[in-house]
User: Fold this.
Amino acid sequence: MTSPAIALIDVTKTYRMGDVEVHALRDVTLTVEQGEFIAIMGASGSGKSTLMNIVGCLDRPTAGTFLLEGVDAARLDEPSLARIRGRRIGFVFQNFNLLARTSTLDNVSLPLFYAGRTTKTADRVRSALDALGLTDRERNHPNQLSGGQQQRVAIARALINDPAILLADEPTGNLDSHTAHEIMEAIRALNRQKGVTVVLVTHEPEMAAFAERIVTLRDGVIVSDVPTLRVEESRVAVARGVGRGEDPAPTWWREIRSVNWIALLAAVRAIGRHKLRSALTMLGIFIGVAALIAMVAVGEGARAAVRARMQSLGTDLLIVSPASSRTGGVRGGAGSASSLKASDATAILEEDVAVSDVSYINRQTAQAVYGDENWSTSIQGVTPSYVSIRNWPIASGRALTEEDERSGAAVCLLGQTVVDTLFNQTSDPVGATVIIKNVPMRVIGVLAAKGHSGGGQDQDDVVLIPFSTSQQRILGVATVSSPQTATVSTLGGTASALAATSSNPFGIQPKLGGFVQAIYVQARSAALVKTALDQVTATLQRRHRIKPDADDDFTVRDLTEIAEVAEESGRVLEMLLAVIASISLVVGGIGIMNILLVSVTERTREIGIRMAIGARRTHILLQFLLEAVLLSIAGGGAGVLAGIIASEVISSVAGWPTQLSSSVVLAAFVFSAAIGVFFGYYPARQAARLNPIDALRYE
Assistant:
């Protein structure tokens, strides 16, 4: 036996308004068979609309049982009720409830998308519009249609999914008599020809006469239920109408795809309707992303510059310098003691297995003269291995050789700053002769430019000569007995590097000997730097006979520590800049949340309409969430472009080093989308939690 289409058993609906209870329905019992056409009449406030809302699964009874095709609708969850509203029930509202700024075609096709029925959508919609005489109104918005045309659109939307039940709440209340009769004829034709169960709410007896039964309500109670003239062909329609709306369910993939599409379309239209407001909302994300990219580019550029300078010094490098001396109980500056010898460097290379190479230097400041030009620069006596240990390429000419060292050759290598000062742009310094302390020195090569060091000193302001030449002819070397401060090297001017002084300010001629001002030690790898440091320290303590409880007369510096400190400082700076920029992104996200909350309030009725025609809560959630994400992505995309341009401008105009990687750009873009999801979720959730009937009643 077939279950009735609708069965209400002792249904009661009570509204509470403060301390007052309003009984809209009182113990209503009503049965509507499948394929039947009934009319519900009664004065305003009699409970007709409340009854229709319960039958349409928009509201739930306070008490009693409501069976829809044999299923207790009160026990169904929200997705099941939404599926019934979208596929089994078609609702024609009294005031049409069409989406504004949406075409007739889109209004009618909306239930198809929420039901996941996307096959031949346009053909189905056009067929429904043709049947109701709306062929030429597909692109018109509701405000471009007459009342009768809007009602036909509402009927077409209600019937597009071939529902088994049609609920029509005052479908002719706003129409003239001629149009009203046309609408009623169309509804009766659906009942007779397609077997659709029709429940009509009306005030007009003339309209109620189209039905087979007339049910009258008064004060929430059924006072009469009488039949009208039955038409035989409607009985035939009942047999055909049983089981309508049971089209095969769409696949999960098709349903998800259709819902995503309609949610995306709705989000795009909502953004497009308020262009200025949307642009201002995106502005916060735009500024945040642009600032984030520009600041990270500056931070990365600074870190890269520091890293490059450290690499130019050599991260596998150790520097051994003399410790401070004591004279009359007063401690001198770093390097004031003459405690290192060339033989110490030889012992380190021979005995310490973690060491791959060594070099040692003397250094003084002196005048270099070429022609009419002169320049006060750093003159360094070095061994041939110095440039390789320092990772210092030769730009032109050749490097110092062991033969130059053995013979004490009067040759030199010039730094780029010295070349730029003494030689004009067209002159080739290689082969030229410069005068250093009245000694002619032939230029055999030019060092590649290294730039300024972390301490701000120019690494290229230097002249390198063989160490033996510096001892015998140019610099000499201070002995322990020298009262003046010994000169020492400055590792390219690095902060905290060895101090340098001008030579012999007291006029005492230094004695020649094996003392050196610094020893450069290269470890076999960066991983062996700590091991090499321990071995070098032990070797020098043994050679210098340092007692266990005494201070060392030398200092060994590990440049990896300097590099690590510089790297960490750069990382902290970059993170600080990124955090500052991220605050702008958070502010932009708050703006999105604020605008969406306003939008939810403005579009409450629209949300109710979408739910009434089959949208689930997840559909509404997705729609508003997509709107937030679209705002974030649009602002983020524009911000990425602006950030890239800003970083280039900063680099070219301000001269600051910038470095921007694709991973940073991608991360900023993804972060902007995540901001949209995070701040858009709450407004979207608020929209999804709206009660359909309350949303429809919202003014």
User: Anything to note?
Assistant: Residues 559-602 form the longest helix (44 residues).
